[in-house]
Design goal:
2,3-Dihydroxybiphenyl 1,2-Dioxygenase, domain 1; 7 helices; alpha+beta; 295 residues
Length: 295
C-alpha cells in the first residue's frame, strides 16, 4: 500500500542561488549539501539545510527568458516557494491513486500523463491545479547523499547554539481559495488525516492542518479582504505560502532578525513572521506554539 513517509524538502525558485544562499547562511546558519546543474530544467540547484532537519532546495533558471517550468514560474511569481517534496513507499501505487482521484501527475522522463507508463519510475509530480496550489513531489524512498540519513547527523547546532534556537519545522502553509475542495484532495486523494481546524481572527484566516507523512501542512484561506494572506493569494493564486519553525524564545528570534536588518511582524501572541521583502520572497515564520504531532 502506498504511504507518504517523511518530508524531503521545500523548494524555492529564485534569480540567483548564490545570493540567496549567502543570506540563508548568514541568517539561518544553513549548510549546502548539494549543488548541481539540472539538465532537465536547465537550472542551477542548491540544497540547503536550515533550521535543523529542514531542507530547502533553491532553483534558478540559467536563462530567465526560457520556456522551462522554472523560468516561467519565476516570471509569473517572482522569487517564491514552489513545492514540497516527500519520500514515499510505492511511488507507482500513489501515482495510480492520484490519477484515480482525478489528480494529474507527471512522472520522471515524461510530462503530464493520463495513464502510467509501463516502465519503472521513482518520481511523481502533481499538477497544482488539481491539488489547489500545492505542487507535490513524491520520490520513492531510498538512500541518497543527504547528511540527515547519516548516523552522525544531529540538528543540535540549530537548537542549542544558533541564535534562532530552532527546535524543528512546525508546519508548512499553503494559501488556498477553496478550503473545502483542498481539504478533500488531502483527505481523499492523499489519504492524510486532518488533525486540527481553527479560525484565527488576528490573522484573518480559517485553516485545516493535515498530517502529511511526518509533517503538518496547513491549508489556510483568508476570511477578510486585504489581509496578509489575502493579498498574496490574489497576486499568486493558490500556492505554497510559508514555512514556520518551532522555537524556544521569540525574543531571541526578534533580536536576531533586527541584527540582520529584517522586519519581524507579530502574527498573534506566539508567532513572528519575517517580511518577505527582506528574504527573497520566502515567507518564514517562527512560533512558540506547539501544534499536534503529525505522527
Amino acid at each position: 500500500m502506498a504511504e507518504i513517509v517523511r518530508l524531503f524538502h521545500g523548494s524555492q525558485i529564485v534569480h540567483d542561488v548564490l545570493e540567496v544562499g549567502r543570506f540563508y547562511h548568514d541568517f539561518f546558519g544553513s549548510w549546502v549539501y548539494e549543488a548541481q546543474h539540472l539538465e532537465s530544467e536547465d537550472s542551477v540547484n542548491s540544497a540547503n539545510l536550515l533550521g535543523g532537519s529542514f531542507s530547502l532546495e533553491m532553483l534558478a533558471p540559467v536563462d530567465p527568458g526560457a520556456e522551462t517550468p522554472v523560468a516561467r514560474f519565476l516570471r509569473r511569481h517572482g522569487p517564491h516557494f514552489n513545492n514540497i517534496a516527500f519520500w514515499v513507499r510505492d511511488c507507482r501505487g500513489l501515482a495510480q491513486e492520484l490519477l484515480d482521484r482525478g489528480v494529474r501527475v507527471a512522472v520522471r522522463g515524461g510530462g503530464i500523463v493520463d495513464r502510467l507508463p509501463a516502465h519503472p519510475f521513482d518520481y511523481v509530480v502533481t499538477h497544482p491545479k488539481d491539488t489547489h496550489g500545492t505542487v507535490f513531489e513524491f520520490l520513492e524512498e531510498q538512500e541518497i547523499h543527504d547528511p540527515r540519513q547519516r548516523a552522525w547527523w544531529s540538528p543540535s547546532f540549530w537548537r542549542d547554539r544558533h541564535p534562532l534556537g530552532i527546535l524543528g519545522l512546525s508546519h508548512c502553509t499553503v494559501a488556498v481559495a477553496d478550503l473545502e475542495g483542498a481539504a478533500r484532495v488531502y483527505a481523499e486523494a492523499l489519504g492524510c488525516p486532518c488533525v486540527r481546524e481553527e479560525t484565527d481572527a488576528e490573522r484573518g484566516t480559517r485553516s485545516r492542518f493535515f498530517a502529511v507523512g511526518d509533517t503538518l501542512v496547513e491549508l489556510a484561506t483568508p476570511t477578510v479582504p486585504d489581509s496578509e494572506l489575502a493579498r498574496p493569494l490574489e497576486r499568486h493564486g493558490p500556492i505554497v505560502h510559508a514555512f514556520t519553525f518551532l522555537v524556544r524564545d521569540l525574543e531571541r528570534v526578534l533580536g536576531h532578525a533586527r541584527e540582520h536588518g529584517l522586519r519581524a511582524i507579530p502574527r498573534g501572541a506566539h508567532t513572528l513572521e519575517l517580511d518577505p521583502a527582506g528574504t527573497f520572497g520566502g515567507v518564514f515564520a517562527f512560533t512558540e506554539r506547539r501544534l499536534p504531532d503529525p505522527a
